[in-house]
Amino acid sequence: MLWFPRAGGHVRAFAYPSLDSALWTSAEKAPALERVLGFDDEAGSVTGVDQKGAVVRVDLRLGAVSRDAKPKLTRLASSDGSSVYGIAKDGSVVRLTPAGQWTFKAPEAPHDVIPEPDGSLLLVADRGDKTTVWQMHPPDRQLTDTAHLPVVGRALRTMVGDRVYFTVDSGLIGLRNRGLEPVPSVHLDHHVRALATTPSGDRIYVAEDSADAIVVIDRYTHKIDTRVPLGGQAIDLRMDPTGRYVLARPAAGDSAWVINVGTDRLVGAVSTEWRADLPAVAPNGWLALLSGHDVALVDGESLRVEKTVKDGAGDTWLFITWNGFRRPDRPSDQALTLADSSARDTSAGEPAHDTGNVFATAPDTTGATGARPATAPPPPGTAGDSVKGAAQGVGLGGFTVQFAALRSQTLADSLARTIAVDGAHPRVVEAPHNGDMIYRVVLGPYATKDDALRVAKASGASYWIYPGVP
């Protein structure tokens, strides 16, 4: 877990849930951050925006901090924690990377940029009573696809990056990432106040105006699956990156409703203020809540306080899975090995919609570069294979490619049959969670991340990679 002093200062890393002593401290001071944009596990760097709107990068290997103050950009966004996109004053689109700057002038000045995990970029612009969405693949300057929509509001990208949804007066309309093909719209009775998607993108949680419940939409049927009564109106939603809980912010008061994703059940309400980093759900299922100057770590089911971090509110919090930290007394090429509990904590059970054990405030789709012992890949599975839990895997090493986490075994088997790499189909892994069964469509694990990435790209399907077995 990383702590960035909110007033600026040295960044510290802790082996969560042990928060008593830092295992790493940056060599340079970071400025006061407004928010974190993402974590790049390949480069070992965190990218954020400081309170003056400049892009800040913190190199976790060297402990160095850099700040890119120019150009002044709005709508800053990143899907990988490395490439940062924004809109300049003249309406041009700018990409900032550690290697340099790229600029593009669209036919119309966009009001939003949506970077996708596959490296593509969506530009959203309004003209009259229409919204135009363009797709391109930087650094190429060609617009590859175009879609025309009615005037839309906010946008929501599914974490696996295969769809993007927009709010309209009557509900939600969506586009597929590939080819910008439209998907069936979803009609809602009220205007949308906030929305969030599960990591696998199979369900969308919506908070509406004048509604005392959260609407849950099934992306496969494009219909409302259920409603979760809250007893009040919600104005913001925050999804657990591992898909166990949704946190809903009430229209009044400093608190949060906690919704169990696996059962669509309201667990209860907890006291907390809201800011860009907190409240959040920790890797072990605890909730990190603001309590005055302190941060309370609360069990997600019992809502019991498990630990209190004194003066923890004075830092910006970021959970990541990475073990490339180096202490000053170690050789520069020797990484610091973290305790296994800090790299993978399953005390809260398997998450309902798992993205692996990469955990960051911005979604990461490539997994972590953990230095775990690699293992050989198992024999290829078939679409009909059903492996009971992780016990039949090959240990905790290697990297797994996951294509989806679904509630329906029929849908999971069907998806697995559509994917083939080197003649092998993914297998379907059963993962029990709070009395429900989740079906994950996976390949691997593979001995190295490069092997997993090759297979993932060859599949032609949306994917994400994480260390270990499902």
CATH second-level architecture of the domain at 372-467: 2-Layer Sandwich
Report the end-to-end length measured between terminal Cα atoms.
Answer: 22 Å
| CATH fold-level label of the domain at 372-467 | Alpha-Beta Plaits
Give me the count of strands.
37
Q: What is the helix fraction of residues, given as a range?
A: under 10%
Q: Can you tell me the overall shape?
A: globular
Please state the structural category. mainly beta
For the sheet with most strands, the description reads: 5 strands, mixed
CATH first level of the domain at 372-467: Alpha Beta
State the strand order across the main sheet: 33-35-36-34-37
In short:
Helices cover 5% and strands 45% of the residues. With 470 residues, the chain is mostly beta strands. It has a domain at 372-467: Sporulation related repeat (Alpha-Beta Plaits), CATH 3.30.70.1070.
Structure description:
By secondary structure, the protein is mainly β. The protein has a domain at 372-467: Sporulation related repeat (Alpha-Beta Plaits, 2-Layer Sandwich), CATH 3.30.70.1070. Helix content is 5%, strand content 45%. The protein has helices at 340-343, 409-418, 449-459, and strands at 2-5, 9-13, 24-30, 33-40, 45-50, 55-59, 65-68, 74-77, 84-87, 93-97, 100-104, 112-115, 121-127, 130-136, 143-150, 155-157, 163-168, 171-176, 182-187, 192-197, 203-208, 213-218, 223-229, 234-239, 245-250, 255-260, 265-271, 280-281, 286-291, 294-299, 305-309, 315-318, 386-388, 399-406, 427-433, 436-446, 464-467. A 5-stranded mixed sheet has the order 33-35-36-34-37. The chain is globular. The two termini are 22 Å apart. Mean pLDDT is 82; it is low at 339-396.
